[in-house]
Structure formats: structure tokens, C-alpha cells
Amino acid sequence: MGPLADASLALVRSTESRPIADHSIRSFIFARLLAEHEGALNDAAYDEELLFAAAVMHDLGLGEHPKAGRFESRGRRPGCRGAEGPRRPEADVDRVWEAIALHASTVSPSAAVY
Do residues 10 and 24 make contact, with C-beta atoms less than 8 angstroms apart? Predict the structure, then answer.
């Protein structure tokens, strides 16, 4: 996919247990299927690499990152910053952060990345 996806996956695999990392990868697969079902794959705002990063890092707070606050928000900024690889626009980091922050809410997290 690209450098952000590679860096995100490497970060998750180095800080999360295998079951959580596998769950996070499955989350991307389901999010991608949902985007396809909703016809979003050809939308100008759809970015599969951002979707992948958000999905694989959504439980990053369950690993070796700081333990303060709700688990779904603990890893969001460190994850976005720690896995960005080559510099990404701040708007991309914000979209990933928003999707991670919203994943436990009633708002569809996929709305933040497509």
C-alpha cells in the first residue's frame, strides 16, 4: 500500500499482542468491504492507506503506550505520529486520529477516512 501502511503495521506488530494485531488487520478488511459496499472506493476523499493506518492502530493504546485515559484514545496521537513514516500532511494525521477516536462511538469511524 505505502510507507504509512508499512510503518503502521510495524508499530502495531511491535507493541501489540498477536491477537490484537490480527483483530486490527481484520478491522481494516471489514472497513474496506464497507467502503466498497457503500461505493466509496472511487470517492476523491477515500484514501485506503489512511483507512489501513486507522484500522490497524485503533487499539494501539492496549499495548506498550501510556495507560492514561480511555484505551481507544491512548494510542491515537502517538500512533499517528509514531507510524507516519515519511512526513504526511497534518490533515491526514487528523483524519487517522479522528477515526481512531470515534471507533467506540455511534459515529461510523469509516466516515473520517472516506
Answer: no
